[in-house]
Amino acid sequence: PILPVDSVNNLIVQLFSAMATGAAIICSHYIGMKNREGANKAARQVVLTVATIAVVITIAGLILRRPLLSFIFGKVEPEVMSNAVTYFLYTALSYPFLALFSAGSAIFRSCGNSRYPMMVSVISNVINVCGNALLMFVFNMGVAGAAISTLVSRVFCMVVIFIALSKPKIDIVVSEYHKIRPDYKLIGSILAIGVPSGIENSMFQFGKLAIQSTVSTMGTAAIAAQAMTNILENVNGVFGIGVGMCLMTVVGQCLGAGRKDEAIYYIKKLSLVSEVVIIASCLIIFILTKPITMLAGMEPASARLCFEMITFITIVKPICWVPSFIPPYGLRAAGDVKFSMIVSCCTMWLCRVSLCIYLCRVWGFGPIAVWIGMACDWMLRSIIFTARFHSRKWLNHHVID
């Protein structure tokens, strides 16, 4: 029951990540302006907004959890439904803590400090894994044990990150929560960035579900190969995404200070850094693919399919991944979020989803169709975003009036 519920949880996580993106961009602009008071005010409004949205989602999830899970599962055995409801209950209770941790991490990143949230996240994951082992295997709590462990780890993250944010020595301080009052104009600015990013991220999750349903019809060998390829492709892109997250902070601070030329320079420079990182990580994963499939005990047919798909990704990804993803981080930091949302959603449904389904169901392609569609998506995005970057229209937006 955990996997379908986690599909819902992933959508919620993407929403909170989008709100955190809005927080990082707004706060980084204020820091670039050297307006510490404005940055503190913006951070407090982010906390208020994210906490309110998270509580509303939690209450709705708790009230509607059975109808929602019945819609996802359909008709299932009562025991499966009971476990799913239990797991969803505890994970829904964790939403406010997860949302606030995402917001707090974004505030730290806007100050140029991504190390501290990473350390907190690592410790939290260790707590989650150890808690799973303890509650599930020692206390035999089953699904409830896994969910409670997740809840505890998220509470830990939130508490630690906000203790750190209350210290006056950092650039942005969030404290005296009882004095926070809504500033609707500032909240509107946060939502103007966060909502389009949330729609974009959510559409990607729906697209993944559509692709998974297509792959699930290809047999166990294809399913196993696609699952392993997904993991390896995520790993070889994680460092590039990290550079993109840093780029948002850098561009936000440059534009906040009115230095548009520096924003352009850093987008170009960090895109080059990302290219080097992507080439290196793709080659490393390509070399390790066969040993990993052997250690995982994959069937020969699945291992062969996985290696073929990783080979394709290793050739294509260094060509078009960076221009399709890294400059858009800079564009979002400039407030050009609607353009990014529209382009990303259109290319995903046109190439990543529709082309994949067409190749599989009409021409009988195997799971390689997923990556052909992905490559076309990357290529089309790279052309559009490169043209948008060079047009400089993205510099005409105003994140803070």
Give a nutshell description of this structure.
The chain is an all-alpha fold and 401 residues long. The chain is built from twelve helices and no strands. 84% of the residues lie in helices and 0% in strands.
Keywords:
single chain, 401 residues, mainly alpha, 84% helix
Question: What do these coordinates show?
Answer:
The mean pLDDT is 89. Helix 1 runs antiparallel to helix 2 (36-73), helix 1 (2-32) packs parallel to helix 8 (220-256) and helix 8 (220-256) packs antiparallel against helix 9 (260-295). Helices cover 84% and strands 0% of the residues. It is built from twelve helices and no strands. The chain starts with a helix and ends in a 10-residue tail after the last helix. The chain has 401 residues and is mainly α.
Reconstruct the topology from this structure:
Layout: H1 2-32, H2 36-73, H3 78-93, H4 95-110, H5 115-138, H6 142-165, H7 184-215, H8 220-256, H9 260-295, H10 300-333, H11 337-361, H12 368-391
Helix pairs in contact: 1-2, 1-3, 1-4, 1-7, 1-8, 2-3, 2-4, 3-6, 4-5, 4-6, 5-6, 7-11, 8-9, 8-10, 9-10, 10-12, 11-12
Output mean pLDDT: 89
Which structural class fits the helix and strand makeup?
mainly alpha
Largest sheet: none
Counted by DSSP, the helix tally is 12
Order of helices and strands: HHHHHHHHHHHH
Strand tally, please? 0
